[in-house]
Amino acid sequence: MHLSHLNGWRAVEAVHRLGTIAEAAEELGVTRAAVTAQVRGLEERLGRPLFTRTPGGLAPTAELGAVAGRLTGAMTALAGAQEALSTEPAGNRVAVSVTQTFAETWLPRHLPDLFARLGQIDLNLNTTWDVVDLHGAELHFAIRYMGEIGDDLAGLPLLPSGVVPVCTPDFAARYGLGEGAMDVSGVPLVHIDVPTTDPDWADWGRWGREMGVPIDEAQSAQPRYALTGSGVRLAQSGVGLVLGGLSEIFASVAQSTLIMPFGQKSVFPASYEHKLIWVDGRRFGAVQRGFRDWVADRAQADRRVMAGLFGL
């Protein structure tokens, strides 16, 4: 097809996805009249209407609705090909796959600083525990809890990890927990099933064995929480002593809303770390590079805080 027809498809896809000519015009950076002309031109080329004109605006025909998903996919693929071949990718979009715990506990505290530094970027977050293939996905980066970085990927370490018992100050006072002997007998323990392949990640059973702290059968049988998110909220609720991930709970410990009743000696480090990764050799624009630098700066500052809190 001629380029004019490709522009027509872009206009039709944008109008269908966004719902109005005005929004499509704003996204495409053209006038409303231009979008209307492009839609009409493509309809004439195809010999059929693609939208029904109503007092409330344009409504897609059933025929257009049947191919809308393929059309959006084609436009996304073209945009990805253009970005991959461009020496300086344009746009302010940053797409990141991130674990849910990191999205819940780390990003919200730092996002105001991100927007102050980079302005109004188009930040797209895909929160999942699944390992996303960055080669086939429309993603710039992934923040993953992982070991070694693969040969075809590049990356940088963000935050170290491990576990430590935490609770509220009131909970510690109620059960007489302090920095003397580590004793959890009679203390409600919150069991969280963490989805990880880290060989050094510890649950209460392993933590107790490594620290020489008995965990009796009654405590092992206490309620378990199969969480895909953070255990910070459970600890802050005061329902029990939580074995919290260091990278998730350090801000709460620094602010004293949670405490480590047994101190630094109760920290059990893990071997994996949170890392920012991307496809090695991929070219990024100024906004994507700015996001990468911002994550590195914030993580470096937080590593210093964690080193002081946990003795890492």
How would you portray this structure in words?
With 312 residues, this protein is an alpha/beta fold. It folds into 2 domains: 3-85, Arc Repressor Mutant, subunit A, CATH 1.10.10; 91-312, D-Maltodextrin-Binding Protein, domain 2, CATH 3.40.190.290. The protein contains 12 helices and 10 strands. It has helices spanning 3-18, 21-28, 32-46, 62-85, 100-105, 107-118, 169-174, 204-211, 217-220, 232-237, 246-254, 286-310; strands spanning 51-54, 57-60, 93-98, 122-127, 141-146, 153-166, 189-192, 224-225, 241-245, 268-279. The strands form 2 sheets. An 8-stranded mixed β-sheet has the order 4-3-5-10-6-9-7-8. A hairpin with a 2-residue loop joins strand 1 (51-54) and strand 2 (57-60). The model has no long low-confidence stretch (mean pLDDT 83).
Main beta sheet: 8 strands, mixed
Number of strands: 10
What is the topology, as strand order, of the major beta sheet? 4-3-5-10-6-9-7-8
Instruction: Determine Rg (CA atoms, Å).
Output: 26 Å
CATH topology of the largest domain: D-Maltodextrin-Binding Protein, domain 2
